[in-house]
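_Per-residue structure_
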Amino acid sequence: MNNECRKFDILIAGAGPAGSSAAIHLAEKGVSVLLVEQKRFPRPKLCGEFISPECWAHFERLRVDGQMIAAGGAGLSQTVFYARRGNSVTVPSCWFGSGRALGLSRAAMDTTLLQRARECGVVVLEETQASQLIIEQGVVRGASLKTGDNNRNYFSDITIDATGRARALARKLVPQVQNKKAGLVAFKAHLSNARVSEGSCELYFYPGGYGGLSAIEGGLVNLCFIVSASDVRRCESDPDRIIREVVFKNSRAALALQDARIESEWLAVSLETFGRQSLVPAEGMLVTGDAAAFIDPFTGSGILMALESGELIAESIVRHLGKAQQQRSFAELASHYRLAYSNRFNSRLRVSSMLRHAAFVPQLAEAAIFLCSNDWVRRRLSRAIRKGSRRVDLAAQVRS
């Protein structure tokens, strides 16, 4: 990697599950891929760390299922939703996919996917960020990448933003404006000595937010919760105080966490928005993963959507890359990707948006949990926000 300029078919920024899965699928079809990651793996990541059963089909196609099992995550047989006063409903993992949900840290999962990308021939640059985009006549042609004190230009036929909610590449295309203050803040840490039911992912609703608790590898549990920014300010951004004064308003959360000990540093991030973003911010650029849409964490489908969208964008590119390289058909690629993405995710995102209003209001959350005591209602809602993924047969696609 000593050349000042390099040329790839695809440049992907962000090596989370969306970016890495897209890179693997593309590389396995003979596409040259440069995968750029700002951090060095393994690294902690703010996430619920819940791998839904539907993810196993993706892991099998990515050929990492054995490694994911070997990482030692905790098996999760059910998800239990607790209202503020302790009323609950249970969603069994066996309703989805293989029925094997898993609690596994993002440090372990993401590192496994990145290593698989390397094995497939993907060129990986860690501790590297895109300092600016290369734009020629309004078309994105790659990026200037900074590693330490070195800046080099890397050209590509298509550039993919898989940098998550930050949309680090897409944001470079528009003038920077002062964002409105985020209304929500998410926190995450690993704990020991928490009283979570064995085999359960527990979700707790309280005024202004909700949180989740589930086992991961190493005998630890992952706590990830969302609270209002006003509560964060009132509690002087102290996570322990926020837990005592806000999260503990849920009686089940108070019981589960009262003797827990923090075993990692706290991670925190402001949440500006949920839902869809622009999929094609400029000619020559596509987005995927959380950069394309951030689905509500209570759905348990964040990692699933990342893997699905990574595979979906790879399918679109494999089908259209030849024409796009000849500067004849990026528009066809963009149109195909938009349509495929909408068909796969729009319904799921709409249902999640409607349920979000209930999640942040205790009375509505209580009512929703009461309604979901009906087995038919619970099954329909669960499947609406975590639809099983359609297998994409990349082998049937031919670069034209």
